[in-house]
Amino acid sequence: MIVGNRKPLEEILEMVRPYKKILLLGCRECITVCAAGGEKEVGVLASELKLHRAKNGEEIEIREHTLERQCDYEYVDQIQPFVDDYEVIVSMACGAGIQYTAERYPKKLVLPAINTTFLGVTLEQGLWSERCQGCGDCILHLTGGICPVARCAKSLFNGPCGGSSNGVCEVDKDTPCAWQLIIDRLKELGQMENYEKIIEVKDWSSARDGGPRTRIREDMRLT
Amino acid sequence: MKTKSNIERLLEKGEFVVTSECGPPRGADAEAVRKKGSLLKDLVDGVNVTDNQTSVVRMSSLASSVILKEMGFDPIWQMVCRDRNRIAIQSDLLGAAALGINNVLCLSGDHQSFGDNPKAKNVYDIDSIQLIQTVKMLRDEGRFLSGEEVKGAPALFIGAAENPFADPFEIRAIRLGKKVKAGADFIQTQCIYNVEKFAKWMDMVRERGLHGQVAILAGVTPLKSAGMAKYMKKNVPGMDVPDSLIERLGAVPKENQAEEGIKICVEMIQQLRNIEGVRGVHIMAIEWEEKVAEIVKAAGLSPRPKA
Amino acid sequence: MRLSYPTNVKVIKVPCTGRVDVNMVLKAFESGVDGVYLAGCEIGDCHFLKGNLRAVKRIAYAKTLLKEIGIEPERVEMFHIATSDGPRFALVAKEMTERVRALGPSPVKQGTRAFKA
User: Pick from C65, C107, C114: which is nearest to A48 by CB?
Assistant: First the structure.
């Protein structure tokens, strides 16, 4: 899922300072799974904003609304009937959803309440971890199902580097060395010969480096 | 001979080579480079010039290498993958060769979070092994990574680093094998304190026949005190400092510990020399460069042979 | 047990303190209360196994949120009281009342009056 963190309250307060009527828009997908921008979190932020304004004796009106997704127009269009009752939309979706809402309502100011970070997985309730960076050219079959691009701090293709110590990355003692994980996995799978091979230079043009990307299925498009 | 490198020439003759290090200054003063260099005059066959080590901004490794070259040294120019993409890398390789640099040491580079710019974007377009391949392709095939012809191939002697004490231990010889396959001509190791463990690593290396394909230079760093030994043991990743060494230093009064540290270093060089496959020593006396002369002479490695 | 405890404590019964959400705590302050506390089972005695452990964490989280907003985090608290321990229940009620009284009325009380339609 796409993972993000709710922006610090201070930052959000600063963004909404001039506004009294706010539409707070959550999303039921990824950002709910990582407990950052779902219905519950929309409720918490709404309360926080109201309490803060109350403390300063200032007004605020907040409508809490959580969409199925903010990245599909069928859902984003559902707020059409009431969107103009509000001065501003504060979106708790991921960066994609926030932008899409802004695209569908170009005359409306859409503010981001989330710092979108990575593509990841739930390790346990309350703990999410990065797994993929969308490089566009997956090599998981060569590395025992563990991605060196996303999980190695240096995205090495022929790691580990000299900073790997006791299975821990030099950057952070809580970060496992991705190449230690890969080697252990290759051993378990009986695929150590994969480690002996040199992985050739990466084609980064399919990643973000090549420019903003699009996916097209012509067979699905109606002209 | 693939290049005009001094250490290549000496290795070919079967000489035990000596290299050391010069870290560039945190400023634009060329004199600072010359001052450090002068401490190593006539003591080394090649001098490493670090590349923004620990991600701390310093005078560029290439510029510092050229200053040392003008002094008469044969610099071993270090290049990390952290800060440059393959375009800048190939460009610098050509530039270095044009300026008369004969050796390049290909490294991944410490992560930027260690240095004075932890907010920087890192590059790592290619990794150290792919960098070795790139240099080899430019030099031996006369081709760029893109496949096109190089008009004037850079003749660079290719070096790489290996840490026999990093984890995972069992694959360190395999990784060395990959570097050799990629085209490394010589290897400098991380500084050794546990000679026994290093000897084990050399066993694995010889088992794979790598010692005949690449020249291994053993790294040493003299300890200034028992405190320094303890610090390195505890805080530096991939460092193996045996307790016996710390005890030996601790047994001597504080003011004599530095001298004992030099003694240990010299003894170590002699032990390492006797290990089959070790073709030289790389002395890293960081911020203690003035002791290199004493170490080289006491280890019987002076004067250095003229190539 | 017919023990007396301060009349300003309004009791809301829940099947387990694990049912209580951070949202509920914030909404309580929105409604104009001066303090909120949870009375959960003793650690290790939760009927639902880990409900009271979740409550402990959520109250700790609620404290950080209150602090951010500018409300004293001492206004919210987690207590562990065995179901049968009437005396302790009364004691805690008195303790919390005194604590909140000392802090004074909730800083958002006035402002939240405007929310009530």
Answer: C65
Whether residue A7 lies inside any domain: the answer is yes
C117 occurs within a structural domain: no
> Which among A68, A92, A118 is the end of a domain?
A118
Local confidence band at C83 (pLDDT 50, 70, 90 cut-offs): confident
Written as six digits, the tokens of A11 are 């930052």
Residue B188 has pLDDT above 60, yes or no: yes
Asked if C110 and A54 come within 8 Å (Cβ–Cβ), the reply is yes
> Does B192 have pLDDT greater than 50?
yes
Shared domain check, A143 and A81: no
Domain of residue C21, residue span: 13-72+92-104
pTM for the complete prediction? 0.91
Model confidence at C115, pLDDT cuts 50, 70, 90, reads low
Query: Is A63 an interface residue toward C (CB < 8 Å)?
Result: no
Total domains in chain A come to 2
Element (H, E) at B186: strand B186-191
Size of interface A-B (CB pairs under 8 A): 90
Q: Which domain holds residue A8?
A: 2-118
The reply to whether residue A195 touches residue B174, judged by beta carbons under 8 angstroms, is: yes
> CB distance A56–C26 less than 8 Å?
no
- Tell me the average pLDDT of chain C: 92
B269-300 burial: b if 16+ Cβ within 10 Å, else e: bebbbebeebbbbbbbbeebbebbbbbbebbe
Distance, C-alpha A59 to centroid of its chain: 32
Taking residue B209's Cβ as centre, other Cβ atoms within 10 Å add up to 10
Residues A21/A85, Cβ–Cβ less than 8 Å: yes
Report if residue C1 sits inside a domain. no
Give how far B89 is from chain A: nearest CA, Å.
13
Quick check: C21 and A40 CB within 8 A? yes
Chains that touch B (3 or more CB pairs under 8 A): A
Chain C residues with CB-CB distance to A62 below 8 A: none
Same domain, A49 and A10: yes
A43 occurs within a structural domain:
yes
Could you give the 3-state DSSP secondary structure of residue B21? strand
Residue C115 lies in a domain: no
Look at residue B238 and tell me whether its pLDDT is greater than 80.
no
Q: Which of C21, C22, C23, C75 to mutate to test the interface with A (most CBs of A within 10 A)?
A: C23
Query: What DSSP letter does each residue of A37-48 carry, written as one string?
Result: SSHHHHHHHHHH
Among residues of chain B, what percentage have pLDDT more than 90? 90
If contacts are CB pairs under 8 Å, which of residues 45-84 in chain A contact chain B? none
- The answer, for B54 touching chain A at a CB cutoff of 8 Å, is no
> For residue A221, is it within any domain?
no
Please name which of B290, B233, B304, B298 lies closest in space to residue B269, comparing C-alpha atoms. Answer: B298
Q: Which two tokens stand for residue B3?
A: 């290049």
Contact C27 A54 (CB under 8 A): no
- Give domain status of residue A34, yes or no: yes
List chain A residues with CB under 8 Å of B143: none
Per-residue pLDDT of chain A (223 residues; tens, 9 = 90+): 999 999 999 999 999 999 999 999 999 999 999 999 999 999 999 999 999 999 998 989 999 999 999 999 999 999 999 999 999 999 999 999 999 999 999 999 999 999 999 999 999 999 999 999 999 999 999 999 999 999 999 999 998 998 888 899 999 999 999 999 999 999 999 999 999 999 999 999 999 999 999 999 999 999 7
Q: What is the pLDDT of residues B89-114, one digit of tens each?
A: 999 999 999 999 999 999 999 999 99
Q: Which domains does chain B have, with CATH numbers?
A: 6-298 (3.20.20.220)
| Number of domains chain C contains | 1
Among candidate residues B200, B259, B199, the one with its CA nearest the CA of residue B224:
B259
Residue C64 within any structural domain of the chain: yes
Query: Minimal Cα–Cα distance from C107 to chain A, Å?
Result: 6
